[in-house]
Structure formats: C-alpha cells, structure tokens
Amino acid sequence: MILDAFKLDGRVALVTGGTQGLGQAMAQALAEAGADVVVLDRRDPVETCAAIAAIGRRAHALQRDLRGMTAGAARALVAECVARMGRLDIVVNNAGIIRRAAALEFAEDDWNAVLDINLSSAFYLSQAAARHFVDAGQGGKLINIASVLSFQGGVLVPSYAAAKSGIAGLTRALANEWAGLGINVNAIAPGYLETEVTAGLRADPARSTAVLARIPAGRWGDPADLKGVVVFLASDASAYVHGAIISVDGGWLAR
C-alpha cells in the first residue's frame, strides 16, 4: 500500500537544533512515522526526547554546540549515534542562527558564526553521514533546511541569506554526487513561521503586517506545517527525489 512507503519503522534519524520550533516539530514527526530519533542541540533536548518517548519511540539526547564543527568531529558524532542507536538512516540539518544588521556595519564575528553553524556544520555532518551510509552498504536520507532566502536576498541578514543560498547549492551538488549511491539529498525551504527566529518581526506591527500581506495563505506558518514534508523526504515515498528544494511558505515565493 502507498501509505507503507511513508513509514519509518526500524530507522534512526538525527535532527540538529531539535529543542524547539522547526527542529522539535520535525523530530516528533519522524517519531510519529516510526523512527527512533537522536536530538542534538546546544541546549538540553530533554523536552523533545520526552515527547518522542511518549510516542513510543527511542530518543537519545546530544547536547552539543555545532560552532567550530570539523570533519573529524562530525565523524565522531555520527559514530556516537550509531553506537548508541545501532544504526543511522536519516539526518536533518536544521540547526541555525540569524544575525541582523546593515551590511555596511555587519560584524565579522556575526558573519563567521552564521556561516559556521548554518552552512559548514551541515556539510560536515552530511559528509560524515554519507561516508557511514556507504561503509554500511546502505542508502540514506539527508534533509537540509534551506529558506525562502535561499531564493531571495532579504533585508539586514546578509550572512543568513548567503548561508541559506549556500544550503540550496550544497543540496544540489551533493545530490549530483550521491544519488547513484542510494543517498537522497533534498531540502525544505520554510517561509515565515512562528519561531524564535521570527519573534522580532512578529512583534513589530509594521513588519508583521507587511509580511502577512504578501503570504497568500494569510497566516504565519506553524512548525507543524513541516511535519508532512520531512516525513516524505525521510521515507521511501521520496526514493526518486534528488536535489529538490521544497518550499513550505504559504505561497510566499509564488506571489
């Protein structure tokens, strides 16, 4: 049956940035579809792990900061996931930060921090996971979190726009190399969702009104709006989907 293609029973997923917002919603969605989940965040992922356990799936917490991630550290992290959970099949590169300032005054530290966490760590973790998939003689699923700013420049967020544009390019580049190895590399591009990242925009009446006026759906998105697409990209239902960037934006990019 077609619904069986969406099941994730017996699989293990790693979700970075999983303590709240998008990461928490996606981790729970993968568990609801049958996966066991490793939740990584710089904050203690105890709440997300408890929610996964309540669903009846295994959860493992990794409290780590992805700043300064290296290829070696990524390999060690993947090895730890496998040692703890017995296998690794899915990686969701969700961890990210944002810094806002005019480009003329944008600080070097802010530029480096955003590129480091939002782009470099995603590459190193993808590389380490793909090596594991190949060594284990299996395929795998890599899901990157892009943004509508993977397609647009935004305002006052040069490092974020650069990193998310990089994620889009990286997704396509890795898909080109790894599709033949049975590894699906795809991305989700969220629009304006109710998360910590958009709290400042939503609190500003003028900015919030302007954003909502452009969204055909007429509302801010909810992290739960990503549940269906992340399960699709993590499952056998997307077996022939490679290098796709699926926008979940209430129609923002179509406007």
CATH architecture: 3-Layer(aba) Sandwich
- How many helix segments? 8
Q: Would you state the CATH class? A: Alpha Beta
Shape: globular
List unreliable stretches of 5+ residues.
none
Q: How many β-strands, per DSSP?
A: 7
Helix fraction, binned, reads 40-55%
List keywords for this structure.
255 residues, alpha/beta, Rossmann fold, 8 helices, 7 strands, 43% helix
What do these coordinates show?
With 255 residues, the chain is an alpha/beta fold. The chain has one domain: NAD(P)-binding Rossmann-like Domain (Rossmann fold, 3-Layer(aba) Sandwich), CATH 3.40.50. The protein is 43% helix and 15% strand. The protein has 8 helices and 7 strands. The chain has helices at 21-32, 46-55, 71-85, 108-135, 158-178, 199-203, 205-214, 227-234; strands at residues 12-16, 36-41, 59-63, 90-93, 140-145, 183-190, 245-248. The chain has a 7-stranded parallel sheet with strand order 3-2-1-4-5-6-7, with helices on both faces. The chain is globular.
